[in-house]
Amino acid sequence: MVTYTPPRAPEPSAPIFREHHRGTTVKELSLSHLSIEVGHFYMKDLENGEEPILAQFKRVKPWLEAAKASAVSGGSTRRVSTCFLIDDYFHSWPDAPEIMEKLLRLSDQAGVTIDYVARESACARRKDGFLVAELLAARLLEEPEPDQDTGGRPPAVTSGWLSNGKPSREATILNAMEAHTWEAPLEYGRINHSIYVDVEMWRDGAEPGADREDVLNRRQYSCPFLAAVWQLVRLGLLRKDGVPALEVTDFDGTWKSEWSQFPDIMRVNPNAAPFYAYESLSIMPQNFLPIETAVRTIVDHFQVQQDVMAKLDRRAQQENIAVPAVISQRMSHHFLPGGK
Amino acid sequence: MARSVAPSPEPTSPHKPQVVLGAVTTGLLNTSEPLPLDAARQVLALVPGVQADWRQYPVEQVVSPDLFFGLDCRLAGGSGSQPRIIGTARAHAVLTAGHFLQGSARVDVLLGVSTTRQPWSHYMAHPGVVEAINKARPADIVTGFLRDRPGKSLLDLGNTGAYVMSLLDQVPQIDRRARLKTQTHRLLWAAHVQEGVEPDGHVEAGDDGVFRVQMSMPSELLPDFMEMCEILALHHWLLTALKNAFDRSSRTGPSAERELEAALSYLGHVWNPKAHLPHAMRWFWDALEDVAQLSWEWQTTLTRVRDKVSLLTRKAIEETLLKEVL
After folding, report:
1. What is residue B21's predicted lDDT score, i.e. its pLDDT?
2. Statement: residue B7 has pLDDT above 60
3. What's residue B324's pLDDT?
4. Does residue B1 belong to any structural domain of this protein?
5. Longest pairwise C-alpha distance within chain B
6. Considering only Cβ atoms within 10 Å of each terminal Cβ, which end of chain B, N or C, has fewer?
């Protein structure tokens, strides 16, 4: 009997020629489990007496300990780093060395170790001149209008304002009988009732018709917008060419006299855990609550680079940590009672 | 307060889409000469902080990073229903041989995961995905998307692709002096995702000049399928552009030579559908070529163009000689 065995199908072999240049390769980061921001002051508060500064750090201290203990670490030793953001964007006085010395001394005295110090103005423009804020501005996606947006609306936010819905409308009608009509505002993603939020992200100072460079040079970013950059940087999610938009430099032992000469982020504690983290917590006085609401609104409209997210998620999985997919769920706040 | 209930963290692995819809818009970059690779990489870095992907062999091609578009609209549901979808579409620009520009848009459609619009952060966490909040059958969505013309409040991904292309209109690297007249083309595609099935599909050429591609396939083939659709869209556009130039040359009289010269120098060298064709899609392309014979038609049209150029040249020489004799 003759049997016929069909020839084996050739195994798919590796391609003979392969070429595909990835424009950007995402860098793997060292990550803490939690990044804690230990208090916040306006520059004028840093300028004034020592007592209020010490008092705030003292109020931060117990919550800091609780936060450290709460960090989700997937069973391994907790890696927690602390940071402090200097409010140097809107006002900056030239006595940076004294302020830094005072800040670190008082925080130490209260038992709050600051690992990293960053400048708010670096969240707008880095020391090397690169406009970090525009990385975020270019990645914001406005919410589509219900039953209206079919795919043709330009995604870019151009007005400097970002909202979570539709504002109220008041129309005056030229009719003596009906003086005016009013339309209620609407939060698109509401549950039952609306909380309409409209955030001013920046204000342009350039003349109409000015070229883009001039517009950007004269653009003043709002405090929530810069804080949104700050949050996204801490979470390792805001990148330029695959590396974090703001990088860490070791403190060299002497404070520069001008804030603008400071590195973007400085490691002031040589034994600190990594700056970037899976999750962030900010402890601050409760008068910052509206600002942080605005920050969360901005972050909720941030379109993260997908391979950045994928790399972080893969790392978290390897470490046995569940990180929420929604970015603002990776951020939490603790608001201290009382005034500042 | 009703909303104080803390939402449980969302799972990081999204649901698998049952249907994926796409549109590829193809046109000529409005510049007199093809863009060199370096310039192409600059102009296609459409998202700050991210560079464009590229390859050089056998044909230069640069692909922009993905852009995202907010969507809240309706799908044509085939059987008359119009399910509402909410989420985002993704789109990128592709520039091939420095001259042929495409805007390629896609949405992954999830069915039956929610019945109301969620907070926007939910959709931002699953980029490129839309959720249909009304009941719908995958097969109806596929046929509805391919059959119906975009109407008011219906998803229009062709428009999304056209917008991505328009981002290159004002870049300083192009001179806005293309010598060849062409029209922008659309191709629509729809995939019914079914794990474990053998891929199976077909292409329909509509009376509106639009190619519609439909395929059932497992999800891992989606990127290859999408790339194949971009290749088909490009080559359908090339063929149409060449045929139109030839037709115009018969009508335009004295400027015929200019038409043909532009067509030859812009299009003559670029036909190569298998250049970047993913291996997993070769069977489909071969089956398509067997019947539609696009490559044969290309060769024939190109030969006619070249023949006509030869004839016109000979005629011109003869006329010159005749003038000299007189």
Report:
1. 98
2. no
3. 81
4. no
5. 99
6. C
Q: What per-residue confidence (pLDDT) applies to B13?
A: 46
**B175 & B269 share domain:** no
CA B273 → CA A180, A235, B186, distances in Å? 63, 43, 17
Q: Do B187 and B249 sit in the same domain of this protein?
A: no
The verdict on B268 and B147 lying in the same domain is no
Measured between beta carbons, the chain A residues lying within 8 angstroms of B124 are 141, 300-304, 326-327
Together in a domain, B264 and B116: no
Q: Is B2 within the bounds of a domain?
A: no
B36 and B181: one domain?
A: yes
Q: Does some domain include residue B244?
A: yes
Asked if B49 has any chain A CB less than 8 Å from its own CB, the reply is: yes
Is pLDDT at B128 greater than 80 in this prediction? yes
The mean pLDDT value for B154-180 works out to 94
The pLDDT value recorded for residue A159 is 86
Task: Tell whether ipTM is more than 0.85.
Answer: yes
Query: If contacts are CB pairs under 8 Å, which of residues 170-189 in chain B contact chain A?
Result: none
pTM of the model: 0.91
B68 touches chain A (CB under 8 A): yes
Residue B206, in any domain of the structure = yes
Decide if B11 touches A, using CB distance below 8 A.
yes
Q: Which among B86, B85, B77 has a CA at the least distance from the CA of B142?
A: B77
State how many domains chain B has: 2
Cβ proximity of B208 and B147 under 8 Å: no
Beta strand segments in chain A, E = 32-38, 80-86, 116-119, 161-163, 165-166, 169-172, 180-183, 186-187, 198-200, 202-204, 219-221, 239-240, 243-244, 248-250, 265-267, 277-285, 331-336
- Mean of pLDDT values over B239-265: 89
Rounded Cα–Cα distance for residues B113 and A261 (Å): 52
Of B164, B196, B221, at which residue does a domain stop? B221
- B42 part of contact set with chain A, CB < 8 Å: no
Nearest to B127 among A22, A154, A306 (CB): A306
Contact B163 A152 (CB under 8 A): yes
pLDDT of residue B14 exceeding 90 = no
| Number of other residues whose CB lies within 10 A of the CB of residue B236 | 23
Chain A, chain B: beta-carbon pairs less than 8 Å apart: 163
Low-confidence ranges of chain A (pLDDT < 70): 1-13, 171-180, 339-340
Q: Which domain holds residue B249?
A: 238-325
The alpha-carbon gap from A300 to the nearest alpha carbon of chain B, in Å, equals 5
B271 touches chain A (CB under 8 A): no
